[in-house]
Amino acid sequence: MKVGVVTFPGSLDDVDARRAVTIGGNEAVALWHGDDDLRGVDAVVLPGGFSYGDYLRCGAISRFSPVMASVVEAAGKGMPVLGICNGFQILCESHLLPGALIRNDHRKFVCRDQRLRIERTDTAWTSAYAPGAEVTIVLKNGEGGFVADESTLDRLEGEGRVVARYLDDNPNGSLRDIAGISNERGNVVGLMPHPEHAVEDLTGPGTDGLGFFTSLVEKAFA
Amino acid sequence: MARVVVDVMPKPEILDPQGKAVLGALPRLGFSGVSDVRQGKRFELEVEGEITDEVLAEIDKMAESLLSNPVIEDYEVHVEEHSVAEIAQGRTS
Description:
The complex is a heterodimer of chains A (222) and B (93). Chain A is of the alpha/beta class and 222 residues long. Chain A has a single domain, classed as Rossmann fold (3-Layer(aba) Sandwich), CATH 3.40.50.880. Chain A has five helices and eleven strands; from the N terminus they run E-H-E-E-H-E-H-E-E-E-E-H-E-E-E-H. A nine-stranded mixed beta sheet of chain A has the order 2-1-3-4-11-10-9-6-7, sandwiched between helices. Chain A has a two-stranded antiparallel ribbon with strand order 5-8. The longest helix of chain A has 11 residues, at 66-76. In chain B, 39% of the residues lie in helices and 25% in strands. Chain B has three helices and three strands, in the order E-H-E-H-E-H. Chain A binds chain B through residues 56-57, 60, 64, 92-93, 98-100, 102-107, 145, 147-149, 173, and chain B through 10, 13-15, 17-18, 20-21, 66-67, 69, 71-72.
């Protein structure tokens, strides 16, 4: 499959995400924020970083970039979209996912290997994981606190849309330890930790993140 | 030209870590008597022409779609004669 990775001004992890896509067995295609052409890709990754300098709110300006109009339209038709960290923030600002990400409750940037439980495994991005799989992948954020009102949180839990949950310490004050969620359909997933930094033994805490990039292939041939 | 101000504040139920940081700093600097601080944003919009209901409705849309995130923030739109900079100049001159 062809997986597009969008580069916004201020994206940091677009190159790592493209590398992870390739290691996951897919073809990585570079997409540009100012171009609404998705170049025929089958899926899109919105990478981490500080798009538009996090001006106004994280993801608030990126939401109105030309490429996002196409991503929102394609997501509505079922195209798999994965937003990592800043990408998650952009998905929330775009209303593709509910809730918002606010500054960490302890006010410090956090960078560490984080244990997670993968709770939803029927999405386009997590089907490679066994239900309830406990994994360790990199977490690095300053504004990673997931918040939503109680009814939205209840709905996410009730519909099984919590994709990943923090284990051990909650690193950023996210309500109900939520690390990642999906839309109803399961094609759009937002995740605060960085699976693209955990795909090779040489660097990072291991290869636990690889499943996010191999799931597409498994799904396609399932 | 007229000026319209949009004030954006975190919703009361949303944690405001920045406000908390300021609140924590005040007593360390010797300021007392402040029991809570909430930090928000103020936008001063210079608007061409008269401020009509249509203009205000348009600014309301701006506030809702871009200037604030209604999931975590409330906003308020009001017409104001002076900017903060002008008021500050008046205070110092």
